[in-house]
Amino acid sequence: MNTALADAPVASSARDMAKLLKAIIVKEKPVNERIRRNMVGDAYLQTARWLPRFLDGALYYGLGVMVEKHDGGILYHHGGNEFGYITQSVYLANQDVAIGLIANCGAQDECDEPVIALTEALIILFSADSSD
């Protein structure tokens, strides 16, 4: 994906975006501790009521990352949506599963709804696997 319309233009793949989100959470390079703390550290999280959520739980927003704390653990995610693309990066901490999705459409219900539905289905699938 490469777009100049996003808040922070990126040239990447869905796999790399998922790997980056996981690296932020599990303290891997290239993300240093100060950046990680600003993005997902408890002291920096703000309660978020207006952002998209995937699970029933408390929703917080760090520096670019949504954090959902729920009964089954913590879900981290970040998405982008502009004309021409939609992205979702998700990391399920308890399951150690990173998911990255990119579709070459966006800002239209006929595109956005199926991508969000797929994201939700994958979260449910991988969340269920950990309880078996």
From TrEMBL:
SUPFAM superfamilies: beta-lactamase/transpeptidase-like
Occurrences of domain Beta-lactamase-related (ranges): 7-107
InterPro entries xref list: Beta-lactam-related, Beta-lactam/transpept-like
Pfam families given in the database record: Beta-lactamase (PF00144)
Protein name: Beta-lactamase-related domain-containing protein
Higher taxonomy: Bacteria, Pseudomonadati, Pseudomonadota, Gammaproteobacteria, Alteromonadales
